[in-house]
């Protein structure tokens, strides 16, 4: 247990809710599985010291089964061990040998298996079948002997034993639920109890699962402190995913105080056991300097460990490192393309978008707009905003494909709805001019305003123009002036000209010819023809009003 943590009240309290009269179960003994070793003609299970002095009928059947097992007569041995168990259900050695023999005999399920099943269960009397230990042994037989074909039957017997308080049966039910083998109980609350009891008995996977249930609030209220406790229990017992979760909790201060050193420590413990997510997270620690000295080279090494296990996020991150370069790591566009492609082929959406861009720009690979479109589509269909925008851009401009305003509108609208500013402006343009959709000035202005509020200068000019002319909105020169002013501050040439015009005509602002000429001059300097013409006329009139210069006598 984690140091400083008191006794756990959760188990008993939930037990009382489910079954107020149920006694608290005793600690479970460790569940042994047959261990096979090489030696002799056949492999045989290694057992602990055998019981002595068993001059009973069960012992006779047991010894007979052992001899038949050594001779390779597994079907006969199975019946001998079943006979031993029918007399002494707690005869664990016979039970383990039975599992071993069935494994030897039935390496693949066969029709004879059903006959063994139907011949074994009746050997156990109806009265004994009500005994929790017998029920547990029946579950063990179905669980281990039938190679995944009879786990539903195993669950049935384990559940009967568990309902009588058999601790090891609860551990098995938790294990089956954890591994998704067979049909676990449908009652989530009861299943949680079995996980919790199994966790209390030291079953590490159950400890991790209990933490997950509490973390996600499944059948129990979310409780970060309680979840951290169980993650820590499993982590202290060497569970790699739990160790990674402990690092995550320390990273964000969930259920425990933030501690960057602990973050890196627990990620490292998990990463060194080969858990790819922890390897990625540890790499991220080195990349950002969280809990360790920042080092991009070491970060790359850990990213590669995760990537070599097929971890797509790590593959993409390596691609980005080679694409942009880092201190001590040179830019390598071909390597960037290779790693991103590996992640993209696994369906990782960020990598699919990046591969589209690399094909579009011809970086790290030959330029290929058809490939770019295919990869942008893959990412765009998963909702990737930038992929949707670039796909719309390609269709809008007809790069590598014929212009298609309808497709441009479809994809740009999706990006715009995700608050992508440039897409909002383009959707406004398409609605304003009726390209790829019907003309709708009101909708156009709405999209212009969304983009304008995010600082898109062209959209600010368009919004001002609509307010100035009263197209799509009521005419309002004051609002027009404010939007022209914002566009002009971003050096938008049409915004500069329109602001000068407002000053010149006194629309939305007091007339000020001098200020008007200032803004016309800025627009003219950017090549705006109308502003240049106005300046020529303005200065020409001034020169005429001054008249010719008189020559001195």
What's the arrangement of secondary structure elements?
Layout: H1 10-18, E1 35-37, E2 44-46, H2 57-70, H3 74-87, H4 92-105, H5 111-120, H6 132-145, H7 151-163, H8 167-179, H9 188-200, H10 204-216, H11 224-236, H12 240-252, H13 260-272, H14 276-288, H15 296-307, H16 312-324, H17 333-345, H18 349-361, H19 369-380, H20 385-397, H21 405-416, H22 421-433, H23 441-453, H24 457-469, H25 477-489, H26 493-505, H27 513-525, H28 529-546
Antiparallel strand pairs: 1-2
Helix pairs in contact: 1-9, 2-3, 2-4, 3-4, 4-6, 6-7, 7-8, 8-9, 9-10, 10-11, 11-12, 12-13, 13-14, 14-15, 15-16, 16-17, 17-18, 18-19, 19-20, 20-21, 21-22, 22-23, 23-24, 24-25, 25-26, 26-27, 27-28
Overview of this structure, please?
With 553 residues, the chain is mainly alpha-helical. Helix content is 66%, strand content 1%. It has helices at residues 10-18, 57-70, 74-87, 92-105, 111-120, 132-145, 151-163, 167-179, 188-200, 204-216, 224-236, 240-252, 260-272, 276-288, 296-307, 312-324, 333-345, 349-361, 369-380, 385-397, 405-416, 421-433, 441-453, 457-469, 477-489, 493-505, 513-525, 529-546; strands at residues 35-37, 44-46. Strand 1 and strand 2 (44-46) form a beta hairpin. Helix 4 (92-105) packs parallel to helix 6 and helix 18 (349-361) packs antiparallel against helix 19. It starts with 9 loop residues before the first helix and ends in a 7-residue tail after the last helix. The model is unreliable at 1-55, 107-120, 181-186 and 549-553 (pLDDT under 50).
Write a concise synopsis of the structure shown.
The protein is an all-alpha fold. The protein has helices at residues 10-18, 57-70, 74-87, 92-105, 111-120, 132-145, 151-163, 167-179, 188-200, 204-216, 224-236, 240-252, 260-272, 276-288, 296-307, 312-324, 333-345, 349-361, 369-380, 385-397, 405-416, 421-433, 441-453, 457-469, 477-489, 493-505, 513-525, 529-546; strands at 35-37, 44-46.
